[in-house]
Write a sequence for this structure.
């Protein structure tokens, strides 16, 4: 058997394949009616709680922090939590607790267990973030067949039973709890082609929650004429209240204002949530996704009217505000589709996992997945005398079919410099946000004469990057060190693995 895991910002969902090859969701081992796991954790001494356990315990342990939205910290090397012993827990480490919980659920649910898994990642994730997800799987002792992008997984599931979309251009609009992704795909038989990708980092349900949270805070301060409390219990409780009110505003059939009595500590107060105000601010967030959609289409010389279908997935996409926003922009002949927004990604991941030949006894059709590079990839030659905006040597163009290897040759003068360094970077627009992944440091060189060094950058099918250096004159490999950005805290796999293995998870693992 196989396992597909949608490791979401707000919720994590897993699926496997039934004996007829159709994907089914894995229920919570303790609550069979629960098909999602909240992506939150709580740590208390030698015990850790993940998912619903953590959600139900925060009032019992009021001085403990609910660790949430850790997925946004993938690739940053910044800790997301410090335990009672001042140990730093990184996003990868906390994610591994969620993965261990999901893994345990699957082992108890599937009669034959499972061997390997596929985990999904946002389409706009860069190399460092993708490798963080792979690292989280290692910490959880979860063997991966592959990682796959969330919109692509959803497209696989959608295309598995919808045979009429061949040769159509489909926009997968993935608006989740913490990220927004869009992917343009075409399908022909068992071949799925990704033709372009885009997205917005740190834009999702959390920003919608914040609109509600601001109203709660302002209502409290108006009622009691004092600052809003910031202790952990209040923070944890208001976070959940804000999320529930957001969902109610998003799902209302008839727009109306909501009045709620809210308890903060011993203080009770009434807050009014004006629908028009909420909708106006929410539409500003949705407009940011439209900017990304138009940017992606322009890169292909296309417009929205050239799309056949928009498929809405992700928790935030289930909002009627999102649906209505896009419905008014559609033209006759276009379809706007809700496609199991909370489960399609996990089910598509299970189908992809099954295509590796490790699925059920049913005959699984192999999936020919053809992706493209999410970002431009380039090199910056480090030079103390370089200008404020150094020249980027572009090696891989955005939306180039994967896998691809591109090479660049540089003349090296060892007598001038013992070491030579290059910054490896990914970006959409060099005039805007250039993300430096790390430094390639080569040397010291044994030769003193000038020579030519070839740097090969491989962008793999899963979106991660490989690096190889060699002497272009004689073909010999050149040793190098890849240095991540400096951080006040050092991530060490063995130490983080010891933290994970040193806690009892949900009282039974």
């Amino acid at each position: 058997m196989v396992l597909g895991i949608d490791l979401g910002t707000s919720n994590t969902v897993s699926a496997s394949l039934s004996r007829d090859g159709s994907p089914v969701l894995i229920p919570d081992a303790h609550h069979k009616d629960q098909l999602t796991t909240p992506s939150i954790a709580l740590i208390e001494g030698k015990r850790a709680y993940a998912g619903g356990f953590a959600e139900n315990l925060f009032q019992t342990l009021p001085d403990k922090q609910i660790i949430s939205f850790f997925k946004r910290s993938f690739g940053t090397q910044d800790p997301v939590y410090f335990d009672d012993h001042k140990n730093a827990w990184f996003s990868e480490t906390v994610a591994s607790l969620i993965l261990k919980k999901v893994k345990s659920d699957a082992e108890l649910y599937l009669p034959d267990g499972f061997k390997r898994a596929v985990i999904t990642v946002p389409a706009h994730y860069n190399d460092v973030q993708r490798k963080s997800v792979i690292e989280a799987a290692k910490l959880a002792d979860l063997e991966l067949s592959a990682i796959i992008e969330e919109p692509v997984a959803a497209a696989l599931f959608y295309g598995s039973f919808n045979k009429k979309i061949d040769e159509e251009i489909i926009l997968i609009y993935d608006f989740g709890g913490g990220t927004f992704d869009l992917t343009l795909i075409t399908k022909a038989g068992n071949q799925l082609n990704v033709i372009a990708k885009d997205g917005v980092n740190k834009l999702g349900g959390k920003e919608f929650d914040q609109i509600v949270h601001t109203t709660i805070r302002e209502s409290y301060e108006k009622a009691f004429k004092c600052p809003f409390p910031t202790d952990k219990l209040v923070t944890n409780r208001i976070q959940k209240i804000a999320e529930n009110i957001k969902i109610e505003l998003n799902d209302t059939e008839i727009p109306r204002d909501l009045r709620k009595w809210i308890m903060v500590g011993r203080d009770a107060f009434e807050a009014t949530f004006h629908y028009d105000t909420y909708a106006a601010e929410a539409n500003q967030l949705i407009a940011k996704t439209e900017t990304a959609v138009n940017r992606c289409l322009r890169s292909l010389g296309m417009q929205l009217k050239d799309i056949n279908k928009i498929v809405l997935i992700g928790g935030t996409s289930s909002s009627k505000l999102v649906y209505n926003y896009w419905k008014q922009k559609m033209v006759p002949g276009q379809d706007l589709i809700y496609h199991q927004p909370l489960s399609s990604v996990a089910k598509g991941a299970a189908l992809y996992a099954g295509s590796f030949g490790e699925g059920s006894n049913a005959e699984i059709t192999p999936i020919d997945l053809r992706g493209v590079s999410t970002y431009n990839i380039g090199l910056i030659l480090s030079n103390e005398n370089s200008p404020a905006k150094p020249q980027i040597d572009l090696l891989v163009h955005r939306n180039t079919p994967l896998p691809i290897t591109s090479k660049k040759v540089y003349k090296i003068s060892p007598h001038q410099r013992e070491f030579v360094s290059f910054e490896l970077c990914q970006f959409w627009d060099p005039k805007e946000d250039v993300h430096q992944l790390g430094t390639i440091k080569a040397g010291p060189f044994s030769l003193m004469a000038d020579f030519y060094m070839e740097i090969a950058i491989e962008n793999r099918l899963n979106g991660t990057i490989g690096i190889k250096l060699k002497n272009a004159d004689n073909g010999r490999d050149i040793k190098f060190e890849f240095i991540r950005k400096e951080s006040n805290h050092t991530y060490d796999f063995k130490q983080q693995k010891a933290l994970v293995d040193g806690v009892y998870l949900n009282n039974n693992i």
